[in-house]
Amino acid sequence: MNDIVIGAEDRVALVTGAARGLGAAIGRSLAEAGHPVVLADVLEGVEALAATLNAAGHRARALRLDVADEGAIGRLPETLGPWWAALGVLVNNAGISPKVEGRKRLVEEIPTEEWRRVMEVNLTGPFLLCRAAIPVLKRRGWGRVVMMTSQAAHVPSSITGAYYGASKAGLMGFARNLAVELGSFGITVNSVAPGRIRTDMVAGAAPGMNEAFLARIPLGRLGEPAEVGAVVRFLASDEAAYLTGTTIDVGGGSYMP
User: Fold this and answer.
1) What pTM, to 2 d.p., does this model score?
2) At what angle do helices 125-140 and 162-182 cross, to 10 degrees?
3) Number of domains in the chain
4) Contact 124, 167 (CB under 8 A)
5) How far apart are CA 18 and CA 35, in angstroms?
6) Which 3 state secondary structure label does DSSP give 69?
7) Helix (H) or strand (E) holding 172
8) Which of 2, 13, 15, 132 could anchor a disulfide with 91, C-beta 3.0 to 4.6 Å?
9) How far apart are CA 176 and CA 28, in angstroms?
10) Residue environment code for 224-234, b if the CB has 16+ CB neighbours within 10 A, otherwise e
11) 46 in a domain, yes or no?
12) 147 lies in which domain range?
């Protein structure tokens, strides 16, 4: 399936951090909506997910990619060929949130290199990908960029460190600025801010953390990855054409601005 020529009307969706959790759910949701999907990650798992989607009759390919590797981003036109030329949807989902025994580091405990790596993956990576993708989307006169941020961008978190919240707040601000720059080209840029969603990352929290968080969720449960995928699928559609520069919170009511 990876040697197909993408038709002019196809809109390839590139999803980063797609090996598991939210990224995998988003990739599956977009594939089910008819998009050819490129599943990008540094982790194992993207190949298996691509194979599963192809076996189900969708169009998918796996790509091992470190979003903080500027050289690798620059080679995407060559690496993806016609899939890159047909790019229509970019979902910047890759992100890291380091923990120590399931708990966040306090600011005074954060090593400088760990701070830098979080910023490189969570914020610089989306910048590099957007910068590379903009010319393609402009040529097509249509595009959807979705930034996967977090409710930690809105309020301090007892679970994620300050560098995670700072990077996600920066991503939200980046999205708003980009929305202004690209609106006249038929390209929308929006953010999705999940709350506590049932993923491996959430499951790795220290004992009692998720239970304490549940008390602040009006719907009384953790979210499911597919529910986030459905929101991204909508933002990638023609029905969301008049929505840009906004943030959709998917947290069961745990954050209400």
Assistant:
1) 0.91
2) 20
3) 1
4) no
5) 15
6) coil
7) helix 162-182
8) 15
9) 26
10) ebeebbebbbb
11) yes
12) 12-250
Q: Which residues are known to be catalytic? A: 164
pLDDT value of position 242? 98
Q: Outline where DSSP puts E strands in the chain.
A: 12-16, 37-41, 60-64, 87-92, 143-148, 187-194, 247-250
CATH number of the domain where residue 176 is located: 3.40.50.720
193 touches 251 (CB < 8 A): yes
The reply to whether 5 falls in a domain is: no
Q: Is 182 domain-assigned?
A: yes
Per-residue pLDDT of the chain (257 residues; tens, 9 = 90+): 444 444 335 899 999 999 999 999 999 999 999 999 999 999 999 999 999 999 999 999 999 999 999 999 999 999 999 999 999 999 999 999 888 888 889 999 999 999 999 999 999 999 999 999 999 999 999 999 999 999 888 888 877 889 999 999 999 999 999 999 999 999 999 999 998 898 876 665 566 666 777 888 999 999 999 999 999 999 999 999 999 999 999 999 988 87
To 10 degrees, the CA torsion angle through 159, 161, 167, 169?
60
Pull the structure tokens for residue 257. Answer: 């601005």
The dihedral region occupied by 10, where left means phi > 0, alpha psi between -120 and 50, and beta the remainder, is beta
Residue 151, Ramachandran bin (φ over 0: left; ψ between -120 and 50: alpha; else beta): alpha
Q: Which two tokens stand for residue 121?
A: 């993956």
